[in-house]
Amino acid sequence: MKIDRRSFLSFLIGGGAGTALSPLPWKLMDDSSIWTQMWPWTPVPEDGEASYVNSACTLCPGGCGITVRKIDDRAVKIEGMKGHPVNNGGLCILGLSGLQLLYGPTRVKTPLKRVGKRGQGSWEKISWKDAISEVAKILSDLRSTGQSHTVGCISDSDRGTVPRLFERFLTVYGSPNLMRTSSIIDSYELTLHLMQGVQASPGFDFENADFILSFGSGIIDGWGSPVRMFRANSAWRNTGGKIIQIEPRLSNTAAKSDKWIPANPGTEAALALGIAHVIIKESLYDAEFVDNYSAGFEDWKRFVLDKYGPDSVATITGIDNTTIIALARSFARASKPLAICGRGQGTTPGSLDECTTVHALNALVGNINKQGGIFAVAEPDYINWPEVEMDATAAIGMQKDRLDGAGSKKYPFSRYLLNRLPQAINSGEKYPLKALFVGDANPLYTMSDSKAVKKAFDKVPFVVSFSSYMNETAQNADLILPNHAYLERYEDIPTPPGMPKPVISLTRPVVEPQLNTKHTGDIIILLAKAMGGNIADAFAWNSYDACLKETLGNKWQVMIKKGFWSYPDFFVQTHEESFDTISGKFEFVSKETGSLKQFKPVNIEGDKTNYPLLLMPYDSIRLANGVIGNPPFVMKSVDDTVLKGNNVFIEINPKTAGEQGLREGQLAMLSTPVGKAKVKVHLFDGIMPGLVALPRGLGHTAFDDYLAGKGINFNELIGPVEDPVSGLDTAWGIRVKLAKV
Amino acid sequence: MKHKKAKKYGMVIDLDKCTGCGSCMVACMAENNVPFRKDESNKLLSITWMRVYKLTNGKPFPNTDICYLPRPCMHCEGQHEGHSPCVTVCPAIATDYNIETGIVSQIYTRCFGCRYCMASCPYHARYFNWWDPVWPDGMEKYLSPNVSPRMRGVVEKCSFCFHKYQLAKEKAFMKGRRELKEDEYQTACTQACPADAITFGDLNNPNHAVYRMAKPDPKHHGRPTNPHAFRLLERLGTNPKVYYLSSREWVRRAGDNYLENESIAKKPAHHE
After folding, report:
1. Which whole-number Å values give the CA distances from B167 to A343, A600, A684, B173, B184, in the listed order?
2. Chain B, window 241-260: residues with a beta carbon less than 8 angstroms from a chain A beta carbon
3. How far is residue A226's CA from residue A244's CA, in Å, rounded to a whole number?
4. Which among A125, A414, A599, A631 could bridge A97 via Cys, Cβ 3.0 to 4.6 Å?
C-alpha cells in the first residue's frame, strides 16, 4: 500500500479525531489526576474526641487568655478565651501560631552541653542529673571563693513565681545581679516613683478614656497588651473616642488615628511641654487637683511658661503653633483625656524627661488614679514566701554594687539597667561576670549593639540558658536546660503591662511534655537542693507545681476553673492617700531629682556630614521582636514590601530617595556608626523626608529555616544611649548613610 | 416540610476597625491546615485564603493614608444564583455553589488543577498547590481532622469554614433544632479578629448583624444601601457576599475601578 501525503494526513487527523472522541483522553486525565492526588505523604489527620482547655499565652507579656482545641491528646488550634479580662476572645497573630512553636523544629529537645566553640552549634546530650550537678558545682566553687556576686541572671520579667524564684535563689546565694529586660515600663515605674512616690506599674484605663494623646505609642502596633489595645481601639470607633498620634512615620496607629501629627523625631517631650504651656496659660487645667494634691506646680509653671510657648515649640517640633494650641485645648477640654508615651511597642524605655512630661500632662488634666486615667497599680501581693535566711557569704554578696549600676550613686532611682551590662562587662570597670543565667529572655537578639552584647557574652565563662527554643542566646550558651513549652506547664502570669486592675492568669498544661524538658521552676528548686545549706532551706517545696499551688492558696481553685484571678476587692485610692512623695502630693518637680532641666533632644549617635539621614525602627504586630521569633504562619503574613526573599526593605520618602538617587526595589547599603547592612528600598509617602525606617523582628540567626537569615536585626545597627537621670536606653534612632550598591 | 428561606452567609468587614494585624490570616491558616514554605515572600505562590492587602491613598507626606483590607473568598452569587465566575468555568464540578448556604465550595479530590477558576476569579482568592505540603517533623501533630490537607496539583480557597457549619448543624440536630443561631456558626477569622472588625452571618436574615450593617438591596443583587458600605469590583456584577465598611471616601473608591473624574455615586450594574 502506497502512503501518500493525503492518506497520511487523513490518517493523522482521523486518528486524532477518533481518539479525542473516544473516552481515552478523559480517562487518562482522570486517572492521572487521581493518581497524583494519592501521594501517601499528604498527611491524613487522625480524628478523635474533641475537647477544650483554657490556659494563658506567654509568648509576649500581654497575658491573654487562650482556649486550646484538642483532638484526643493533640492540640490542634489556639483561640482567644471568651470572658478573659485581657482579650475576651480575640487573639494576636503570634498567639494564634503557638502550636507551631510547641510542635516545631525550634524546640530544644533535651538538656544540651556545648562541645566545640561557642555558637558553633555542636552539642552533646546531658542528663538532667548531670546538668544540674554541673551548675551546682560551678556555683559552689564561685561561692566558696567569695565570688557569689559574679553570678547574674537575666529575665524578661521580675513578676510571677518563676522570676521570683530566680530572685530568691540569687538573694540566698549572694548576688544582687538580677536584671530585667528593659522597656517603657521601666521609665513609667521610675516616673511613678519620682512624681508619686510609689513602687508601681502604670495602669491605663483606656476602656473609659475618650481622648488619647499618644506620643508615638503603637496602640495597634503591639504597645502594652496588644489584644486589649486592639479592643480598646475598636471601642473608641463605636463610642466616638479620639486618638491623636504624634510620630514622624505613618504607622498603622497613625493611619487609624483621628489625627496624625508628624513631629520631628525625638522632640515629643518639647511638644508635651508646649501643650502644657497652653493649658496652663489658658487656665484649662484641673485646678482642684493641681491646687490640692500637687506640689512644685508653681516652679514647673514658671519653667513651662517661660520657655515653651507655642512658637518656640513649633520651631523645635516642626508642628505649627496653631496645631499645638488646638491640640492643647482639645486635650484639656476632653472629658476623659489620657496622654501616653513609649515609641512603637515600647521596647525602648526612652528619655525620662519625656515620660515625666507626658505624665505631667495627665496630672494637669487631673486624671491620676481616676476613671479613664492612669493608675499606679501595685504588684499583686500573692507571693508571700517566708524570708530567706542569708548566711554571711550571701550577706556580703548582696552588699556588692550591681554590675549594671542600677541603684548606684549615678543612677540611684533605677532598679534594673540591663542596657548597661555589656559595657560594664566589656570595660571590666567593676568586677567580671563569672556565670550568667538567662531565663525567659533572648538578650543576644533583643539588646541593641549586638556586636558589643556578643563580645560581653563571650567574656562570661559560663552561660546557662533556660529557653524552650533554640534562640540566639541559647545558641551561644554553654548549657541549655530547656523549659517546658508554655502549653506543657503551669505558671502564673501576673498583671500584663498597662492593665489598670490587677489580674493573674494561669498557664496550664494543654498537652503532656513532648520532649525531655523540665520546668525552670523545678530546675531552680533542684539546684538549690543540690547546693544544700541555707540555699536548700529557702526552697522547701518538693516541686514547682507544689510551690505554685501553695503560693496561690485559695486562688488556685478559682484559677483552675476560670483560668484567671481578678481582684474583686481592688479599689482606687483617694488622692489623699495615693501619693507617697516627700511632700505627700503629686510632684510636678520631683524633690528627689531636684532641678528642672531645659528640654534637650536625646543625643543621637553619628554626625550629620557622614550620616545625613536618620534611621528609626518601626514595630509591627506581624513581626515578633521579643523572646520569640516569628513562627512560619506569621512569616507568611509579612508583606512583600517588608521582606522579599532574604532582603528586608527600608522605608524612605520618595523625595529623600530621589535626592539619594534610589529607586523602588533597588539594593542599597545602609551604614550607621554601629554597623552596616544591605537592604532594599521601598518608597513610602507616609514617612517624613530625611528619615529611614527599618522593621524590628527580622535578622534572626537562630530559630528555623522559616525565619533565620531573613532580613536584618535592627539592633545590629544601633547602640544604647544612656539617659542622664535613669541610665536607661533612650536611643530612638541613629544617624545613617544610604548608598547605592 | 415547611418551605424555608435559603441562607445566604456573608461577611461585613469594618475597615475603620481593621488594624491590619493579620490575626484573621493566621487563624484561617491554623483552622484550615494551610501549608507553608520556607520562603513566602512571593505572594503569587503564597497560599493565603484570607489575605490582608495594604491600600494607600497615593498622596505625598503628610497627607498619606493607609487602609488595610482583608480579602477572603467573596463567595460570589453572580447575576443568577450560583453563577459565580469560578463555578461557571470549572470543568470538573470541583467548585460548586451551595444553594442552601450560598457558599462556594472547593472539592479537592475532584479538582485536577486546570486553574480556569483562578483565571476567572477577579479577586485572586484562589491558590494553586504547586508543591505537596510539607510540615517539619512533628508539626503535623497540630493538623485538624476537620479539614483535609491538600495535595499538589489542586486549587484551594476560603470555604467560609464550611466544616464549622457542618459541625454546628450536627450539634443543633443533636439538640433537636433545625435552625442555627447566629453565633453558632462563625468563621475562624471572625472569631479571632481582636478588633471585632469582621462580622459574619446570614444576609437573608434581617435579625443578623451582617444584614443590619450592609443593608443589602435584594432588588439589585444585594448591593449595599448603607452609604459607608461597598463591595469589591461591584460593577463587575459578581454579586459578592463580602461587604466592606469605611468612613473614608478614598477607601470606598479603591474598591472598584473608577475614571479619574467619575463620581463614586451608586451606578447600576452594567447589564441593567
Report:
1. 44, 62, 45, 10, 9
2. none
3. 18
4. A631
Query: Hey, is A94 helix, strand or coil?
Result: helix
What are the φ and ψ backbone dihedral angles of A428, each rounded to 5 degrees?
65, 25
Closest CA–CA distance from residue A681 to any residue of chain B (Å): 16
Looking at this predicted complex, what is its ipTM? 0.94
Using a CB–CB cutoff of 8 Å, tell me whether B189 touches chain A.
no
Nearest to B26 among A96, A102, A103 (CB): A96
Tell me whether the omega of the peptide bond preceding residue B62 falls within 30 degrees of 0, making it cis: yes
Question: Which residues does chain A have within 8 Å of residue B46's beta carbon, measured at their own beta carbons?
Answer: 636
Q: Which CATH code for domain B9-78+160-254?
A: 3.30.70.20
In degrees and rounded to multiples of 5, residue A521 shows phi and psi of -60, -40
Which of A44, A74, A621 has the CB atom closest to B141's CB atom? Answer: A74
The full DSSP string for A519-561 is -HHHHHHHHHHHH-HHHHHT---SSHHHHHHHHHTTHHHHHHH
Contacts of A8 (CB under 8 A, 6+ apart): none
- By C-alpha distance, the chain B residue nearest A42 is B151
The angle formed by the CA atoms of residues A220, A729 and A613, to the nearest 5 degrees, is: 75
Q: Above 60 in pLDDT, residue B266?
A: no
> Residue A102 and residue B38: Cβ atoms within 8 Å?
no
Contact A234 B140 (CB under 8 A): no
**Host H or E run for residue A337:** strand A337-344
**Is the Cβ pair A45, B136 closer than 8 Å?**
no
- CB-nearest partner of A93 from B26, B38, B136: B26
Contact call for residues B106 and B155 (beta carbons, < 8 A) = yes
Asked if residue A126 has pLDDT above 60, the reply is yes
pLDDT-derived band at B270 (thresholds 50, 70, 90) equals very low
How many pairs of residues across A and B have Cβ atoms under 8 Å apart?
207
**A180 in Cβ contact with A347 (< 8 Å):** no
The cell for A304 is 513651662
pLDDT tens digits for A285-337?
999 999 999 999 999 999 999 999 999 999 999 999 999 999 999 999 999 99
- Where along chain B do its domains lie? 9-78+160-254
What's the whole-number mean pLDDT along residues A596-612? Answer: 82
Query: Please, what is the end-to-end C-alpha distance for chain B in angstroms?
Result: 36
Q: For A342-355, write each residue's pLDDT tens digit.
A: 999 999 999 999 99
The 10s digit of each residue's pLDDT in A445-476 is 999 999 999 999 999 999 999 999 999 999 99
Count of beta carbons in the 10 Å neighbourhood of residue A646: 15
Q: Which long-range contacts (CB under 8 A, 24 or more apart) does A526-534 make?
A: A526/A132, A527/A132, A527/A135, A527/A136, A527/A139, A527/A169, A528/A169, A528/A172, A530/A132, A530/A133, A530/A136, A531/A136, A531/A139, A531/A140, A531/A143, A531/A173, A533/A391, A534/A172, A534/A388, A534/A389, A534/A390, A534/A391, A534/A394
Predicted local confidence at residue B1, as pLDDT = 44
Q: How far apart are CA A522 and CA A513, in angstroms?
A: 14
Which residues neighbour B272 within 8 Å (Cβ) at sequence distance 6 or greater?
B220
Query: Which tens digit of pLDDT belongs to each residue from A99-121?
Result: 999 999 999 999 999 999 998 99
Distance from CA of B272 to the nearest CA of A (A): 37
Domains of chain A: 5-36 (no CATH), 128-184+386-480+515-566 (3.40.50.740), 206-377+573-587 (3.40.228.10), 613-740 (2.40.40.20)
Cell of A191: 516616673
Interface contact B139-A104, CB threshold 8 A: yes
Residues from chain A contacting residue B25 (CB–CB below 8 Å): 93, 633, 636-637
Interface test with A, best of B34, B130, B139 (most A CBs within 10 A): B139
